[in-house]
């Protein structure tokens, strides 16, 4: 009679039929052996060993085990590749060297020091790129006041950057079709309006003033969303009051006030709000396309929208404006550098914002975006030495604080909606 002898001292190796990694029997709970002897083994009965299978038995994992293995593989598939071939999660872990902890669900959790360092890297890169763009964009506009050309060039740099990433396979290229392009036409149009309007505002007034007015974007978001049937709690409506008051106070006391700059910033707010609203409706069937690829295609289509209009609006002045700019600065390479940096860093800071939204919660992103305006305003005031009156600084602070309150109120609203969907 054939008998199966399982002794604790013998290292019998079990192997799964669906998994290549062997399991040492000595690591198993001895109670499992007793359960098998009592014919109460919960997974699968052992097959009789043959001459070809020396002391090896087949072990069939349960469906629960398979689901856990599958889940762990899927978790690793969630890592989003950045344009440089590494995810921001990987960079943060490598930089910190902090250990990773496993949660009871089997998912890897980042330790607190590692998480703090990751947030510092994300926001630091995002803020730095935004500051560089605003400084060199304004420097270029001061000697070459043609915002339509610069706005087109910035979209051109973003388009070339994305084509390089896709061609070198540093970023997976999305599969596009006619319906995807048609769905992008609306968001790209509103993105074009928002971008060119902001550039026009930058050319007319101080960068700090434009950013104060652009902090009023939540006001337009609430108003336009209400028109299409979205409802907001009282806290959200109350949060936009300090934004309106602060922007009004800052506009009245602004030294470099110009109606063209004011209206440019306001129209920019409208454009970006409509882009966000329209994107939710037209792009909801293309959720497999990540944010960076989505922004890349929006930039490409926006360039096709903007450049022909730019040539019509101010194209006849570009040559004369170029020679005047070179005569003003003296060194052509400096002018080329300013224009190039404004174009490259415009795309990079938008790219970083999309990657930041992939890595952090919407609330953290909203708070970070509010603080970004504070950092940019302070940096540009220091670089360009713009005169700031006390009331102007107070109005700017009130408006930005209102933006912070708005982000807190809308985050609570989203949590309530998420809870209702689960129920």
Automatic annotation (TrEMBL):
<feature type="transmembrane region" description="Helical">
    <location>
        <begin position="333"/>
        <end position="349"/>
    </location>
</feature>
<keyword id="KW-0472">Membrane</keyword>
<keyword id="KW-1133">Transmembrane helix</keyword>
<dbReference type="InterPro" id="IPR037185">
    <property type="entry name" value="EmrE-like"/>
</dbReference>
<dbReference type="InterPro" id="IPR050186">
    <property type="entry name" value="TPT_transporter"/>
</dbReference>
<dbReference type="InterPro" id="IPR004696">
    <property type="entry name" value="Tpt_PEP_transl"/>
</dbReference>
<dbReference type="GO" id="GO:0031969">
    <property type="term" value="C:chloroplast membrane"/>
</dbReference>
<feature type="domain" description="Sugar phosphate transporter">
    <location>
        <begin position="117"/>
        <end position="407"/>
    </location>
</feature>
<feature type="transmembrane region" description="Helical">
    <location>
        <begin position="361"/>
        <end position="384"/>
    </location>
</feature>
<feature type="transmembrane region" description="Helical">
    <location>
        <begin position="294"/>
        <end position="313"/>
    </location>
</feature>
<feature type="transmembrane region" description="Helical">
    <location>
        <begin position="390"/>
        <end position="407"/>
    </location>
</feature>
<keyword id="KW-0812">Transmembrane</keyword>
<dbReference type="GO" id="GO:0015605">
    <property type="term" value="F:organophosphate ester transmembrane transporter activity"/>
</dbReference>
<dbReference type="Pfam" id="PF03151">
    <property type="entry name" value="TPT"/>
</dbReference>
<dbReference type="GO" id="GO:0015120">
    <property type="term" value="F:phosphoglycerate transmembrane transporter activity"/>
</dbReference>
<feature type="transmembrane region" description="Helical">
    <location>
        <begin position="259"/>
        <end position="278"/>
    </location>
</feature>
<keyword id="KW-0150">Chloroplast</keyword>
<feature type="transmembrane region" description="Helical">
    <location>
        <begin position="119"/>
        <end position="136"/>
    </location>
</feature>
<protein>
    <recommendedName>
        <fullName>Sugar phosphate transporter domain-containing protein</fullName>
    </recommendedName>
</protein>
<feature type="transmembrane region" description="Helical">
    <location>
        <begin position="180"/>
        <end position="203"/>
    </location>
</feature>
<keyword id="KW-0934">Plastid</keyword>
<feature type="transmembrane region" description="Helical">
    <location>
        <begin position="148"/>
        <end position="168"/>
    </location>
</feature>
<dbReference type="InterPro" id="IPR004853">
    <property type="entry name" value="Sugar_P_trans_dom"/>
</dbReference>
<keyword id="KW-0809">Transit peptide</keyword>
<keyword id="KW-0813">Transport</keyword>
């Amino acid at each position: 009679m054939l008998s199966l002898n399982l002794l604790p001292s013998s290292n019998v190796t079990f192997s799964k039929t669906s998994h290549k990694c062997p399991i040492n029997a000595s690591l198993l709970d001895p109670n499992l052996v007793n359960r098998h002897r009592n014919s109460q083994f919960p997974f699968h009965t052992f097959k009789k060993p043959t001459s070809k299978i020396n002391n090896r038995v087949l072990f069939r994992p349960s469906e629960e085990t398979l689901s856990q293995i599958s889940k762990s593989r899927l978790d690793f598939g969630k890592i989003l590749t950045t344009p440089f071939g590494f995810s921001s999660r990987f960079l943060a872990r490598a930089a910190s060297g902090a250990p990773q902890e496993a949660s009871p669900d089997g998912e890897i959790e980042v330790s607190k020091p590692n998480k703090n360092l990751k947030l510092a890297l994300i926001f630091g890169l995002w803020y730095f790129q935004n500051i560089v763009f605003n400084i060199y964009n304004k420097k270029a506009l001061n000697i070459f006041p043609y915002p339509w050309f610069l706005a087109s060039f910035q979209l051109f740099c973003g388009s070339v950057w994305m084509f390089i990433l896709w061609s070198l396979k540093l970023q997976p290229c999305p599969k596009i079709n006619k319906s995807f392009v048609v769905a992008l036409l609306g968001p790209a149009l509103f993105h074009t309006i928002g971008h060119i309007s902001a550039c026009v505002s930058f050319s007319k007034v101080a960068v700090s003033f434009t950013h104060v007015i652009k902090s009023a974007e939540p006001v337009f978001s609430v108003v336009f969303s209400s028109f299409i049937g979205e409802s907001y709690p009282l806290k959200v409506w109350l949060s936009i009051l300090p934004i309106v008051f602060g922007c009004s106070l800052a506009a009245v006391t602004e030294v470099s006030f110009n109606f063209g700059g004011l209206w440019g910033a306001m129209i920019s707010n409208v454009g970006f709000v409509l882009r966000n609203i329209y994107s939710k409706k037209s792009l909801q069937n293309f959720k497999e396309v990540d944010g960076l690829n989505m922004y890349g295609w929006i930039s490409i289509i926006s360039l096709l929208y903007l450049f022909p209009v730019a040539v019509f609006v101010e194209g006849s002045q570009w040559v004369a404006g170029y020679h005047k700019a070179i005569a003003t600065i003296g060194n052509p390479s400096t002018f080329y550098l300013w224009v190039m940096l404004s174009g490259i860093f415009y795309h990079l800071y938008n790219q970083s914002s999309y990657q930041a939204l992939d890595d952090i919660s919407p609330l953290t992103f909203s708070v970070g975006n509010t603080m970004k305006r504070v950092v940019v305003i302070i940096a540009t005031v220091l670089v360009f030495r713009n005169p700031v009156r006390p009331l102007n600084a107070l109005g700017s602070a009130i408006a930005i604080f209102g933006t912070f309150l708005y982000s807190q109120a809308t985050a609570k609203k989203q949590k309530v909606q998420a809870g209702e969907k689960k129920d």
